Amino acid sequence: MDPNRFKDAFAKLEVLDDRLSYKVRRSSQNRSTELEKLDERVRDVAEMVLELKDVVRELMLAIAAKPGSKPAESG
């Protein structure tokens, strides 16, 4: 395992959480059935899922990597 790469991936996860979790975990009092609001929430969840996929991939690569190895370009 590459601890530096793992630490970097975990930091990305924390940034993602800080940036998007509040949008996904909105209060039940503010729920609206307006199509525009639902569409916005779906986009927020989709954005979070796609970024989470990238972070999980990076975590898996960090676990499989040798310490000090250079990260592969993600794409």
Walk me through what this model shows.
With 75 residues, the protein is mainly alpha-helical. It has one domain. The chain is built from 2 helices and no strands. It has helices spanning 3-24, 35-64. Helix 1 packs antiparallel against helix 2 (35-64).
TL;DR of this structure?
The chain is mainly alpha-helical and 75 residues long. It is 69% helix and 0% strand.
Oligomer: single chain
Query: In whole angstroms, how far apart are the ends?
Result: 22 Å
Global shape: elongated
Low-confidence stretches: none
Q: Could you give the count of β-strands?
A: 0
Structural class: mainly alpha
Please provide the ordered H/E string of secondary-structure elements.
Answer: HH
Strand content: under 5%
Number of helices: 2
Output the radius of gyration: 16 Å
How confident is the prediction overall: mean pLDDT? 82
| Major β-sheet profile | none
